[in-house]
Write a structure and sequence with these properties.
The two termini are about 25 Å apart. This protein has one domain. It has a 5-stranded mixed β-sheet. About 25% of the residues are buried. The radius of gyration is 15 Å and the shape is globular. It is about 25% helix and about 35% strand. It is an alpha+beta fold and about 120 residues long.
């Protein structure tokens, strides 16, 4: 996968494949878009929203292996490494690190996975 590292003051995202909204700040997540594959939020890393069976299986395997090896739960960095290593070269990870302003701490980190091979049907 490829990582698009964003630092936005909002969480509005659109699919590069379909042009449709994936997440709108005041409306929530649009996980029915055919290009949407997964969503992780830093406050609830262990409970992502996944729309791909193979990604879900790989995620469960990763969690089990990580917890066995480290006797701990994965952190942001570990999850990002998992995503970057996932063998789908035409999938993109939108990583959005939101801040209220430049002087404040990070308010949220969200990873959204999109399949760019999806073609929008008319």
């Amino acid at each position: 996968m490829q990582l698009l590292d964003l630092k936005l003051k909002h969480s509005n995202l659109y699919s590069l494949a379909t042009g449709e909204p994936i997440q709108m700040e005041n409306e929530g997540l649009f996980d029915t878009d055919p290009s949407f594959k997964g969503f992780w939020h830093h406050e609830n890393l262990l409970d992502p929203i996944l729309n791909d069976a193979d990604l879900e299986t790989a995620w469960e395997d990763f969690l089990n292996e990580y917890e066995t090896q480290y006797q701990d739960t994965p952190n942001d960095e570990s999850i990002e490494k998992f995503l970057m290593a996932y063998p789908e070269p035409n999938w993109v990870i939108y990583k959005n690190t939101s801040r209220v302003d430049e002087s404040r701490l990070v308010t949220s980190v969200i990873w959204t996975v999109v399949d760019l091979n999806v073609v929008k049907e008319d």
